[in-house]
Every structure is written in C-alpha cells, then in structure tokens.
C-alpha cells in the first residue's frame, strides 16, 4: 500500500465534528479534549498520592487525622454543659464562646478571628457537583445517581465515540429512586460549574462547547430511556412471576439454549453443564429481567459481581448478547405480547452490557496470564510491579 493510500484511509477514519462545534476539525478532536479534561479533573483532590511509594503513608496519615478529629470531637462533646454545642475549626464542632469560629444568627458563612469568611472548598468533581447542587436547590437524589455513572459515561464516550447501557441503567435508577420532579438539565448546570472551577486555567469556549455537546448526547439518550421503566416493569414482572412457574420457564430456557447452540455451535463447547443447570441459568436470566426494574441499584451491583465470575469461566462477552437475542426470539415465537417482549429484551440487554463491561474491565493482562497458566506472560506483567507489591497485585487479580 502506497503512502497516499494510507493517508486517504486515515482521512476517512475521521468523523466530521458535531453540528455547531466550530474550532474542531473532527469528532475525535472533541473526544480527545473531553478525555484530557476528565483525566485532569479525576486527579483533583489526590495530588498527595502522586509520588510512587507514598500511598501507604497517605492512607496512614489520613486515618490518623480522622482518629484525632474523632477524639477531639468526643472531648468537645464531653467537656462542658449543654452550652457546648456547634462546630469548631478543627473538629467540626465549636463551643458557644469559641472566638476562632463564629456564625451569625442569620445563617451567613462562618468567620475566623480576623473576620474572614471560612469555606471548605471542594477538591474533587463529586464534592464540587454536590456543592453546586446544594446552591442551586437541585434534586440531590438525581444528582447522586448521575454522579455514580458519570465517569463511566465520559470514559465510554471518549473511548467508543458513543454511549452504551449506562443511560438505560440510569433511567431505571432514576425512575425507581428519585422522588419529586426530575429536571435532567440540573446536572448540566452543576457539571459545567464544577468543571469551570476545577480547571479554570484551561477552560475556554472550546471546552464549554465540547462538554455541552457531551451532555446533550447523554441527555438525549436519557430522555428516551426514562419513560421505559414505568412502561415495562409491571407487564414483565407479571409474566415472569405470575403467569409462569419455574417449570414452564425452565422449558422455555432449554429451548433458548438449543437456539443458541444452533446459531453458534462453538458455544456448546463452552457450556457443557447438564440440561438442568442450563435451564437454571436461563430461568435466572428471566427472573433478573424483572428484578432489575424493581431494584436497579442492587441489581447493577450484583450483575457487576456476576460478570467478574464469568472471567474465571472464560466466557466470551459476545455470548451475552447472543443469549439475549435467543431469549427474545423464543418468547416472541410463543406469541407473547409485544410489550412484554420489548420490556424483557430491553432489561436483558442492559444486564448483558453490564456483564460484558465487567468481564472486559476485569480481564487484566495479569489475571489472564494467571488463568492461562502462562508463566512467561505472568513474569512479564509482574516485572513492572515493585517487589513489595507483587503479592497484593496477584491477590487483587485473582479476587477481582
């Protein structure tokens, strides 16, 4: 291949910038800027841990500081009568007559002895967003749920150029756990204000445009997904829990596996369990399809743990999507109502994505070398780890 042909291929690989993104020559440039920003913001508040070998010192110092503060707090509460209440500069509590920390009756910020206002300035993105949420009276339940998944949303968008299942699991959690009116734009306000505060030196119009575009992409997907939990939860739960018993679900499950083996014969070499075990796996999957609507936060955590177990079984992540497709084909062939089929397919797709993500994230080179009993690769991976930390690295790899 000539140099001109290679150059032409590289040009074709670039995606035009999103509409209205002046100043960027491609979408990749937008994603690169967002990724750089997020890397910098993610490090805020953890500067003390930068130097190698200082993590333990940092953790020990932090623990000692917490213990000292707890002792001071206990002493402050114990000493003095019922007049000893409020907050102090060092412990968070101050006596009524403390000159070093005073607060006015009208609730204004505290001042020190020199009359200067005292604020605990947040050092991390999460803390800063919560501060901005409090200042703007945003729905804190919604904000906290968004914070749980926002880092993954950013990393996935930067890595893949598209959003995956996080907006769906977010929609499930928001629909179930958030009370009151939900305004998705509240997080945008808090997010942008936090980014400006954390990286003020580099923030400019290009950064503003890039992060607004990212949020609009997330918000569009989120708004599409938000009505679905309410639409699907009841019919899916009724079909799985009430209209079918374990035997009928098991019979359906076995047919699902036969479909899967027919579509992908190699799968049969991986899943060599008995028919009863295969039935149980399929039944659990269908039960999960209803359970994730009822308690998405708990199920999200459980599916991540289940995904890590699949690493040990050496299951290819693409089999999860194939399994979901076969379940969908089977229940549709039975003439089940479309609303139920769509609801099960949606929730099972979310579960499959969580499992696949966990397998991908947990399949570190160190762990894969250990599982494959590849001594040479294992030594190569451990060579870059300090001797004193190799044991912990192996333990972390094998325990997930």
Q: What's the topology here?
A:
Layout: H1 3-13, H2 27-42, H3 55-78, H4 125-135, H5 140-160, H6 166-177, H7 185-198, H8 205-225, H9 228-242, H10 246-263, H11 267-270, H12 275-294, H13 296-312, H14 318-333, H15 338-362, H16 365-371, H17 375-382, H18 387-399
Helix pairs in contact: 2-5, 2-8, 4-5, 4-7, 5-6, 6-8, 9-12, 9-15, 10-12, 10-14, 12-13, 12-15, 13-15, 14-15, 16-17
CATH architecture of the domain at 229-363: Orthogonal Bundle
User: Radius of gyration, rounded?
Assistant: 26 Å
Biggest beta-sheet profile: none
**CATH secondary-structure class of the domain at 229-363:** Mainly Alpha
CATH domain topology of the domain at 229-363: Globin-like
The tally of strands reads: 0
CATH superfamily membership of the domain at 229-363: Globins
Strand content: under 5%
| Portion of residues within helices | 55-70%
- Low-confidence region ranges: 7-12, 47-63, 76-108
Mean pLDDT: 77
User: What is the terminal separation in angstroms?
Assistant: 44 Å
Sketch the topology as an H/E string, one letter per element.
HHHHHHHHHHHHHHHHHH
Gross morphology is globular
**Which class do the helix and strand fractions yield?**
mainly alpha
> Count of helical segments?
18
């Amino acid at each position: 291949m000539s140099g001109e042909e290679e150059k032409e291929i590289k040009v074709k690989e670039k995606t035009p910038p999103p509409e209205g993104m002046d100043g960027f020559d491609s979408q990749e440039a937008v994603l690169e800027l967002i990724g750089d920003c997020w890397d910098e913001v993610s490090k805020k508040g953890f500067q003390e841990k930068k130097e190698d070998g200082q993590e333990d010192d940092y953790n020990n110092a932090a623990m000692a500081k917490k213990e000292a503060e707890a002792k001071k707090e206990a002493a402050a509460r114990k000493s003095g009568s019922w007049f000893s209440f409020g907050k102090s500069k060092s412990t968070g509590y101050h006596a009524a007559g403390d000159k070093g920390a005073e607060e006015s009756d009208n609730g204004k910020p505290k001042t020190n002895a020199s009359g200067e206002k005292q604020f605990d300035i947040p050092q991390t993105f999460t803390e800063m967003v919560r501060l901005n949420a409090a200042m703007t009276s945003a729905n804190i339940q919604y904000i906290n749920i968004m914070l749980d998944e926002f880092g993954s949303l950013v990393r996935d968008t930067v890595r893949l150029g598209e959003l995956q299942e996080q907006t769906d699991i977010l929609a499930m959690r928001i629909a179930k756990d958030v009370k009151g009116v939900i305004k998705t734009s509240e997080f945008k306000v808090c997010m942008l204000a936090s980014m400006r505060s954390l990286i003020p030196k580099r923030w400019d119009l290009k950064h503003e445009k890039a992060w607004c575009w990212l949020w609009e992409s997330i918000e569009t997907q989120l708004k599409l997904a938000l009505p679905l939990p309410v639409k699907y939860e009841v019919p899916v739960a009724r079909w799985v829990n009430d209209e079918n018993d374990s035997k009928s679900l098991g019979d359906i499950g076995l047919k699902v596996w036969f479909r899967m083996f027919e579509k992908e014969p190699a799968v049969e070499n991986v899943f060599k369990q008995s028919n009863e075990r295969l039935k149980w796996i399929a039944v659990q999957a269908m039960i999960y399809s209803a359970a994730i609507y009822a308690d998405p936060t708990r199920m999200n955590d459980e599916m991540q743990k289940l995904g890590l177990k699949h690493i040990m079984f050496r299951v290819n992540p693409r089999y999860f999507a194939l399994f979901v497709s076969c379940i969908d084909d089977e229940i549709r062939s039975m003439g089940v109502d479309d609303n139920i089929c769509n609801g099960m397919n949606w929730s099972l797709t979310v579960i499959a994505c969580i499992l696949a993500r966990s397998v991908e994230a947990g399949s570190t080179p160190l762990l894969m070398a250990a599982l494959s009993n590849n001594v040479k690769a294992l030594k190569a991976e451990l060579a870059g780890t300090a001797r004193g930390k190799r044991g912990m690295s192996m333990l972390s790899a094998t325990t997930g």
